[in-house]
Structures are given as structure tokens and as C-alpha cells.
TrEMBL record:
One of its GO terms (molecular function) is peroxiredoxin activity. Keywords: Oxidoreductase, Peroxidase. It comes from the Bacteria. The keyword Oxidoreductase applies. InterPro entries: AhpD-like, CMD-like. Pfam families: CMD. This is Peroxidase. It comes from Flagellimonas aquimarina. The lineage of its organism: Bacteria, Pseudomonadati, Bacteroidota, Flavobacteriia, Flavobacteriales. Residues 40-120 form the Carboxymuconolactone decarboxylase-like domain. PANTHER family: CARBOXYMUCONOLACTONE DECARBOXYLASE-LIKE DOMAIN-CONTAINING PROTEIN (PTHR35446:SF2), SI:CH211-175M2.5 (PTHR35446).
Length: 200
């Protein structure tokens, strides 16, 4: 059971309407949002931020944004967000070869140098202490413009919030996310962990 129980999806009508966004991205409203509804201003602000961050304004594709989210969540160890990010990457058209080899993005030929720079940025920006340096800045600017870099950091920062929220909350993971986690991440040791409801 989570630290705080998620509320019914119909608890706050405004949140429910905004949360329709997640039916496209995940196929369900995440329990994290249903928990945020205990303070509807938070759930509504979060969904609006999520929509703004995930909007495509340049060449950073929806699939790449979700892979950036996965790398960030992997760096922080949030199993819940790892599964959600890989599921959303699949739903937004990430190539099968990339999904199957996400753990090897640095060397696998399915990833371009531009994608590697973006994913490495996600890794170093998610570490504590932060490891963004002149080398990653130079690599990013080889492939991406400043607006696109802002989009990437928006994803990394959004998932920093989600990683803290879901790992601290022990948010119960949804069945669809479990399926995606097991399919793409299970061979590398992914498991539900505290999100299976048995740790609290």
C-alpha cells in the first residue's frame, strides 16, 4: 500500500478532465496523479506542466523525450517511473530495436550520436551531485539548438519531481506499466519493488 492512498479518478472534475492526456500517453491515469488529487491544485498544476514539457516544439521527438525520462528515472532508481517512461516511449513510436536495447544506448547502433548526447545529458543532469559539464554542453550544442536543450531539461526536471514523488510515496504501479517494465527492463533486473504495495 502506498504512503497515501490514491483517490477515485472522479474525485476532482477538473483533474479528471486534464488527466485525459494520460489515456494517450499511458493508456490509463497514473496513480501518482490520483494521489496528488488530495490537493487538487497540485494535480492540476502537475498535469499542465507535464503537457507543456512533453509538447513538441523542435526536433526532440515524443519517443526521445520518453527515453530521456527513462534514463533519468534509471539514474535515480525509481522503478515506477522507469516502467511508465518505457511504456510511453513504446506508445509514442520508439523503434523496437531502441526499446530492446535502451540499456546499451551508448554503444548500440540503433541510437544516433544526437540521441546519445541527449541521453547522456539526462544521465548526468539526474545525478546528485549534478554532473553537467563543458563536455556535455559541447556535445549537446553539436546536435541540438537551445530551445531543444530546454525541452530536454524540462523532461529531466519533470521526472526529477516524479522520481521523488513516486519513490517516497511508494505509489502502487498499474498493471499496464508492470507489463512494459517486465517486457523491456526485466532482463536487466527491473522489478516492482516498493511499488507492488507490500513494502508499507
Amino acid at each position: 500500500m502506498a504512503l497515501v492512498n490514491p483517490l477515485d479518478p472522479n474525485h476532482d472534475p477538473e483533474t479528471r478532465k486534464l488527466a485525459e492526456f494520460f489515456n494517450e500517453t499511458l493508456g490509463f491515469c497514473p496513480n501518482s496523479v490520483l494521489t496528488m488529487q488530495h490537493r487538487p491544485a497540485i494535480s492540476k498544476a502537475f498535469i499542465n506542466l507535464n503537457k507543456a514539457v512533453m509538447a513538441n516544439e523542435g526536433r526532440v521527438t515524443s519517443a526521445l523525450k520518453r527515453m530521456i525520462a527513462w534514463v533519468s528515472s534509471n539514474a535515480t532508481g525509481c522503478r515506477y517511473c522507469q516502467a511508465h517512461a518505457i511504456r510511453a516511449a513504446e506508445r509514442y513510436g520508439a523503434e523496437q530495436e531502441q526499446l530492446d536495447n535502451i540499456w546499451e544506448y551508448r554503444t548500440h547502433p540503433a541510437f544516433s550520436e544526437a540521441e546519445r548526447a541527449a541521453l547522456d545529458f539526462s544521465l548526468v543532469a539526474s545525478q546528485v551531485p549534478n554532473a553537467v559539464d563543458a563536455e556535455i554542453k559541447a556535445r549537446l550544442h553539436e546536435h541540438w539548438n537551445e530551445g531543444e536543450i530546454v525541452e530536454m531539461l524540462g523532461v529531466i526536471s519533470l521526472f526529477g519531481y516524479l522520481n521523488r514523488w513516486n519513490d517516497s510515496m511508494g505509489t502502487s504501479i498499474e498493471e499496464g506499466a508492470v507489463e512494459s517494465g517486465e517486457q523491456y527492463l526485466g532482463k536487466h533486473g527491473w522489478e516492482e519493488g516498493k511499488h507492488d504495495g507490500s513494502r508499507y
